Amino acid sequence: MTIWSKARHKSMFDWSLPMPDAATLPIDRARVSTTISSGVRTDWTRTEIAALFDLPFTELVFRAAEVHRAHHRAGEVQLCTLLSIKTGGCAEDCGYCSQSVKADSGVEATKLMDVQAVLQSAAQARDSGSKRFCMGAAWRNPKQRDMPAIVEMVKGVRQMGMETCMTLGMLTGEQAEQLAEAGLDYYNHNIDTSPERYGDVITTRTFEDRLDTLDKVRSAGINVCSGGIVGMGETRADRVGFVHALATMERHPESVPVNALVPVKGTVLGDMLADTPLAKIDDIEFVRTVAVARITMPLSMVRLSAGRESMSEATQALCFMAGANSIFTGDKLLTAANAGDDADAAMFARLGLKPMEGEEPMRAMKAVGGCSGGCAA
To answer: Does 37 reside within a domain?
Structure first.
């Protein structure tokens, strides 16, 4: 019997631990405890999620860590690599993005990379320890003429034994099917922020457009990667709404990237937040967001994405304690700087972490037909 046995899981939990005085917070604390212990759910309310955010910090991280250890191997972190296969010139007006044609960021538009060049980058990522190779193109949506090359990229990376992920913008049903037939493992399409905040960040598409593409991806049988960005000047209520939108999907995303805004000069948000206290989200609030994502989506991979290069190792360690178990490694994320392989290896050594080797929980359960509810079917 291993430490991952059901018996071990059962023995780890004691949700009757003393709770702080209920009068100090607006929500009944006993109800919060019951909420956390009830397993995979897709019926979370905003009130319940707000109550999680309001927990004392150490208690929130502790409870998130308990949930994490019930479903994931503690001390293992998935390594992923992200490559921009087509940079700049995007017609969308996302206020955070340096690749938008609306941004005066100095990012030059490029054509779609050659298939062999992409595969060479994937091989280098594999040799550096990455298990998933993510490819991103700065498009509103891919043109049909580009799909044959995209399909070849997916097939080539899969032949190397790596998981594949694409983010290409909005998809038609036919394009989603093409990607599925090529063997694409994941499609990334972030919801970015709460439904209420969305129109303040992006005006060239709607929140519903995002959900429509995610529905097409699900229908094609591709795993979903969807998260968002915090630190865009939003309120905690917006962060509650962001998590709520993900945690109440019929099936939770298999991967949930949590990005901290990297303010870029020349972008709407970069210029608006420059030299203000809002230019960087508070580290404790960022960890809280990670912890709440872990509790509400217990089987999902929670990924530390953009903004990690500006975080201290202590902050990242708290994120790992709170349930983050995936990172992008390498020196660059699309157009933003990243920590780099050497820095990550040194941090892993100091923290006693190791690269994840096994299958992700939701995919493993799917393979044996054991998924239900918030788990992928």
So the answer is: no
